[in-house]
Amino acid sequence: MKHPDPKIRIMAIRYLGHCGPSIAIPLLQEMLSDPNPDVRSEGLYSLIKFEDPIVSTLLRKHLKDTDPQVRITALRGIFKHGGQIDLNLLLQFLSDESPLVRRKVATLLGWARMEGVLPILAELSKDEDPQVRKAALSSLHSLYPEESEDRMLEAMTDRDPHLRKWAKEVLEKIVASPLRTTVAYQHREGKDV
Fold this sequence. Notes:
about 190 residues; mainly alpha; Leucine-rich Repeat Variant; elongated
């Protein structure tokens, strides 16, 4: 745990992830103050495996870590541990300096299916980074299909060509879906199509 090579410390952390919580949690908690962000991130990742109340506290503390990857790992852990996630906690990430963190928030919100995330996703869909906008639009489409259509139409005029192309493809699928369902129903009913 005190080895000068961060790769060795990471290997030790991975081993601790397979130990019992009474041994692992205190040692992993120590590793969260390591100067190397990869070590801190791996420490959090290993802690996520344990169902202990202190883990949630440690995850929340590291949402403010200086390294974006550590913040992302802490976010994943909070979502994985489930329970009620405070939306106000997530609002701080709307202006996170790292687009990777903002994109991860947008993605996790789409997977979590939480109530009240529409305003957060709507805000992230206007982010300066095209990958954040795409992740937010994808989550919006997944959670709020009808509400997302207008935003998808707006995205077809986005300044990013990849996002424009993606939005066009999504809208084409939306338009084609009801038609296929109607045609299949009419065919089943013996009506001419």
